[in-house]
Amino acid sequence: MSRLLFARGIHTEEESRRYLNPSLDDLHDPFLLPGMTETVALLRKAIDEEKTILVYGDYDADGVCAASILMETLHEEGASLAYRIPSRHTEGYGLNADAVREIAEKAQVLITVDCGVSNVEEVALAKSLGLTVIVTDHHQPPEILPQADVVMDPLLGEYPCPYLCGAGVALKICQALQGMPGVEKRLDLAALATVADIVPLQEENRVIVREGLHRIMNTSRPGLKALLEKAGLQAAVTADDLAFRLGPRLNAAGRLGDAKLGVHLLLTPDPAKASHIAGLLEEANRTRQNLEREMTASALTQLDAAELAKSHVVIVSGEDWNPGLIGLTAGRLCERFHLPAIALSIHEDTAVGSCRSIPGVNIYRMLSACADLLERFGGHEQAAGLTVKTENIPLLQKRLEEEISSATPEECFLPAMEYDMIIPFRTWTPETLAMLDRMEPFGCGNPAPLFLLQGAEVQSLRRVGKDGSHLKLTVLDEDLSVVDGIAFSKGDVADESPAVLDLLYRPIRNDFRGRVSIEAQVACVNNSELLVLSSRRTRTP
Fold it and tell me: Which of 101, 112, 324, 481 is most solvent-facing, going by the fewest CB within 10 Å?
């Protein structure tokens, strides 16, 4: 355990305690966030003067959860409220001028969640129309900030946890207004958003997700109950469940239709209404899966193997591709080719794009270097969005290729997986697995420990699953212990019939009819793949 913790930068007894036993006591004072004092004062003043406060969110799971947290909190504080979630398809990300003009007709205070830090012109318009404007965001701030009454972003100043998502920032506002009782009511939504938005599960985020997971299974929210039921989740919920089962269902509303459905779901007190909305999201998510497969297949037809071999960025495009799915397609391409990838949806003379990147390539910085070619852009190191004139796409590809290749060491483009250590498989018992459980929740910034099994002698390999895409295997490790395992999406290894394999795996329990066994959930089968395996541990603690 000491070695595993050390690989995550945890070196002292106090750091170990906070990591293994995160508690709400570890949450930072919300007033350490620059702008929190002013935000609370403006919100209190608006409530006292009975002004209408409009909460403006984003159309993804983080934005929906953030808007729900703030709406619920301000409602309890007695505020006169309205909210707006823009359409991904007709308005795009962040504030827009038409929305600002409409808001000015019915509200006096505008507060953004999960967006706004790049909307310099739109905030200026809001101020000119007499609105008090509070921007709360967590995305990378540009060099020139909007001239709002307050701009609050954990990346500004010296806040101890710069990794908060939009809902995390909203939770800190709740903490400032209501203290820990308010936080405890809304940890379920903040945990879902934190995992769905793929921010590092470190510091406060680890507390939020660990504590939030406990509350999700016992939630009193009809909306979350309905979402859990549709996802088939009845046992203990894990961070993986938030990432791959709840998050996609909540995101489906904004990807294919109206993201306000998500807010309605999370805030409704009516179980029947919640069940109906969850059903709509379930149907939307199935449609999303089918459309995503079709879009990714179309994107792959545009790529040439010879060109990819010498490229440092992948750019694909399609006429009127669904803007809600291009990020997923970019992610698939990024993962498949281990290159930064951009998927563009072209409509007439303009294209809206979504970017996903690899470790070592800061895609936001690369876009910044090409800002003169872009209409707008924003995001993080690993994910970003952009709008570009169609005529500029070829030049953008050329410039990005030059910027990325000149700024990035070639080793960054080698597919790599890190493992934690090499230990005999017989080490794994129910007791040692219980030790690993204390390291959860796993995800971005806190990956599940992986272990290397070298030179495993193959006993059997066979395809499993409906389409035979998965691999069931039995091997012998170096001390002749029998290791049973499953490798998802690696069924083709069975066709190669290798005699010896190197495996990266995660030990898991298999409870079958009361009999507990330990198996290997294989993340990598390194028989013929060009893959760099490296240890996460740089030196012995």
Answer: 101
Q: Does 52 lie in the same domain as 153?
A: yes
Closest CA to 473 of 425, 481, 464: 464
Quick check: is 527 in a domain? yes
The one-letter code for the residue type at 168 is: G
Matching residue, tokens 């002004």: 51
Residue 431's alpha-carbon distances to 116, 484, 513, in angstroms, are 48, 19, 20
Phi-psi region of 387 (alpha: psi -120 to 50; beta: other; left: phi over 0): beta
Q: In the listed set 275, 296, 317, which residue is the last one of a domain according to the structure?
A: 296
Record the tokens describing residue 58, joined without a space: 């984003």
One domain, residues 394 and 311: yes
pLDDT of amino acid 536: 62
The answer to whether the CB of 258 falls within 8 A of the CB of 225 is: no
pLDDT beneath 70, residues of the chain: 527-541
Same domain, 189 and 224: no
The DSSP line for 64-132 is HHHHHHHHHHHHHTT-EEEEE---TTTT-SS--HHHHHHHHHH-SEEEESS--TT-HHHHHHHHHTT-E
**Are residues 518 and 507 in contact, defined by beta-carbon separation less than 8 angstroms?**
yes
Same domain (yes/no): 185, 249: no
pLDDT of residue 533: 56
- Which of 296, 329, 360 finishes a domain? 296
Same domain, 234 and 362: no
pLDDT of 22 reads 93
Query: What SS3 class is residue 284?
Result: helix
Q: How far is residue 89's CA from residue 304's CA, in Å, rounded to a whole number?
A: 30
List CB contacts of 500: < 8 A, sequence separation 6 or more.
455, 456, 457, 458, 527
* Closest of 141, 143, 103 to residue 122, by C-alpha: 103
Question: Rounded distance, CA 130 to CA 140, Å?
Answer: 27
Tell me the C-alpha distance between 209 and 202, whole Å.
Answer: 10
Residue ranges making up the domain that contains 224: 219-296
Q: What SS3 state is found at 195?
A: helix
pLDDT of residue 418: 84
Residues 323 and 237 reside in one and the same domain: no
Question: Is the separation of the CB atoms in 237 and 216 below 8 Å?
Answer: yes
pTM of the model: 0.88
Residue 235: DSSP 8-state = S
Same domain, 108 and 212: yes
Cβ atoms of 223 and 250 closer than 8 Å: no
Look at residue 419 and give its three-state secondary structure.
Answer: strand
277 and 315 in a single domain? The answer is no
pLDDT in tens, 122-169: 999 999 999 999 999 999 898 899 999 999 999 999 999 999 999 999
Asked if residue 7 belongs to a domain, the reply is no
Q: How far apart are CA 187 and CA 182, in angstroms?
A: 9
User: Does some domain include residue 8?
Assistant: no
- The answer to whether 326 and 353 have CB atoms below 8 angstroms apart is yes
